[in-house]
Design a protein that fits this description.
P-loop_NTPase; TraG-D_C; two-stranded parallel ribbon; binds magnesium ion; binds adenosine-5'-triphosphate; alpha/beta; 576 residues; disordered C terminus
Length: 576
């Protein structure tokens, strides 16, 4: 037998007062109805009788035969019955449709965010807040969904960063990512594991700017045939601090190829040495303008000391000394460190990947700085979730583009980009491993770089950024959206505590023995508004929105094709 949602059932009320009120209402309606029939009937078919203006007196006169029920009264009665029937039918239909759309958690919204909190996320309020910061974009921001009890649309403004945690197949791409890209007012970055996002958005983005699709594993085959490549060593040369940039590039390779939770690797020592080794090798390759594939050749041949010779005598003295010491290390250590380095850059040995990193006939060179300076260009990064071979490439390009955007923002008035940049980071854990993303998250909003990081669970974030990193990301996101499909008790219990409690009136009935009859007592009890079990069973289409400074909101997701999306501008100039 299907269970009842006992926890959500409200306490039964005493039926007496309700029956008495309903009876009184019916009697009053009947008296008014009879009076209206006789009065209006007299106007239709005048019989010359004088109908009293007081409905009660009129009904008494009718009962005593002092006034008559005329044909006109019958016509009015039939018309009134038909009108009342149509009205009741309409109301019942609307209520029925509303009831059919309702899920078992919807009533909980009465204990969540109040009217003012919900209103503060309306398009009007968010637009007002944008304008007060000097933001002139016509789109209010990033659409979230509809609050369940009022149906009001909820928006995050152009300073809010989002974090979405939804289980698989719950609608995150179709209700959050696709609309975000379709409404992007300027530059847009999109990560995904499937072609669904590109299919639904690329024709629109092509009308507003240049589209670049990085697809090393041919997941979006045929959708974009333009040929291009980028040189990861441009990341090293992007400013005068080549040593730090080379180290960051090596860290990205390490993070993109790491297995298990961040920081949990038992071979961490060799890998940290390998990061230093790779940093020096990247620096050497960048100095000589060599392709990054040369670094793969160097770590494969321990006897080739070319990189040491390149760095010796250069301005990068400490790196040269460190590199030389690595080549001179005790053979076992040296072999372990070089093997770890080779593991990190193994993708550079794959033709499938190298074609994106080295000049090819007819392929255009992608410049992250030019992209960051564009009006409304789009970068799609697609990578296979099962096979992470392309992940270092997608990670490096993403980081290079974000850094270029930050650099550009820092040259703009107020360190804010003139038109907000939209980064729809769907399935990011499978595509981009950027250890420093949580640190950047708290500053992106003020620079006009608006991200939505989408993960399948909190644990997936911990795997990428470690416990501390994920906590940082969670705290820095001003809009956290939790969709259905979670089963991690610890996470759900913490979420239940964040959602909080409310008080309820509880009635208890006791039956005393002897001459003490039935006694009823009421008490106020505090209960968790949604407990972990209820959150684990959050129905499809519902989401909890935690927006900074507001009580939690229960919202309904809206698929992109049911949203009022703006049509694409006619030409590139109108996107500006
Ligand atoms: N509001 C909605 N009402 C009904 N169906 C919906 C709604 N939103 C999405 N769906 C359907 O749910 C399915 C999953 O949607 P979607 O691909 O967006 O989910 P996802 O969470 O991104 O999945 P994945 O984990 O595979 O990336 C699709 O078939 C989609 O059409
Ligand atoms: Mg998806």
């Amino acid at each position: 037998m299907a269970g009842k949602d006992v926890a959500r059932k409200s306490q039964p009320r005493e039926p007496g007062p309700t029956i008495a009120l309903a009876t009184m209402g019916l009697i009053a309606a009947a008296v008014l109805g009879v009076w209206a029939c006789v009065t209006l009937g007299e106007k239709l078919t005048a019989s010359g009788q004088d109908v009293p203006g007081n409905p009660v007196v009129a009904v008494i006169d009718l009962a005593q035969g002092q006034i008559e029920w005329t044909t006109g009264a019958t016509i009015v009665a039939v018309a009134l019955v038909l009108i009342a029937g149509a009205l009741l039918g309409g109301v019942a239909g609307a209520l029925g449709r509303r009831q059919a759309r309702k899920t078992r958690v919807d009533d909980v919204s009465q204990h969540l965010a109040g009217r003012a909190d919900v209103k503060s996320l309306s398009a009007k309020s968010v637009t007002r807040a944008n304008r007060s910061r000097g933001e002139a974009t016509s789109v209010p921001g990033v659409y979230i969904g509809k609050e369940v009890s009022t149906g009001q649309d909820l928006w995050g403004g152009w300073e809010d960063l989002h974090l979405d945690l939804w289980g698989p197949r719950q609608g995150k791409t179709s209700s959050r990512i696709i609309p975000m890209i379709r409404r992007a007012p300027g530059i847009c970055i999109s990560t995904s594991c499937k072609r669904d996002v590109i299919e639904a958005t690329m024709p629109f983005r092509q009308q507003v700017g240049r589209v670049w699709v990085l697809d090393p594993q041919d997941k979006a085959l045929g959708l974009d045939t333009s040929r291009w490549y980028f040189d990861p060593l441009d990341f090293v040369r992007r400013d005068q601090w080549w040593d730090g940039n080379a180290e960051e590039l090596a860290e990205i390779f390490n993070a993109a190829t790491a297995r298990g939770e961040a920081g949990s690797d038992p071979n961490a020592y060799f890998y940290s040495q390998a990061v230093d080794l790779l940093a020096s090798l990247f620096l050497a390759a960048a100095m000589e303008g060599r392709p990054i594939t040369d670094v793969y050749g160097w770590v494969s041949n321990l006897e080739d000391s070319t990189p040491v010779e390149i760095l010796s005598g250069s301005q990068w003295g400490p790196q040269a000394a460190d590199l030389a010491s690595k080549y001179r290390a005790e053979p076992r250590t040296r072999s372990n460190v070089f093997s770890a380095a080779k593991n990190m850059i193994s993708c550079l040995g794959r033709r499938q990947i190298v074609r994106w990193l080295t000049p090819q006939a007819g392929a255009e060179r992608f410049d992250p700085v030019a992209f960051a300076g564009s009006t409304a260009d789009t970068l799609y990064l697609v990578s296979d979730e099962e096979n992470p071979i392309g992940r270092p490439v997608t990670s490096i390009l993403t980081v290079a583009v974000f850094k270029a955007l930050v650099d550009r923002a820092d040259t703009c008035p107020g360190s804010r980009l003139p038109v907000p940049v939209t980064a729809a980071l769907d399935e990011i854990a499978n595509i981009v491993r950027w250890p420093r993303l949580p640190d950047y998250y708290s500053t992106f909003g003020s620079r006009g770089i608006i991200c939505d990081t989408v993960l399948q669970s909190y644990a997936q974030g911990v795997e990428v950024w470690g416990e501390q990193g994920m906590k940082k990301l969670w705290s820095a996101a001003s809009i956290v959206v939790i969709g259905p499909g979670h089963k991690d008790y610890r996470f759900l219990d913490e979420l239940a505590h964040l959602i909080g409690t409310h008080t309820e009136q509880q009635r208890s009935v006791s039956h005393g023995g002897g001459d003490r009859g039935r006694s009823v007592s009421t008490q106020i009890v505090e209960r968790q508004t949604l407990n972990a079990a209820e959150l684990a069973a959050l129905p499809f289409g519902r989401m909890i929105v935690l927006a900074t400074g507001r009580r939690p909101i229960l919202a309904r997701m809206v698929r992109w094709d049911h949203q009022d999306l703006p049509p694409a501008p006619k030409n590139k100039e109108t996107a500006a």
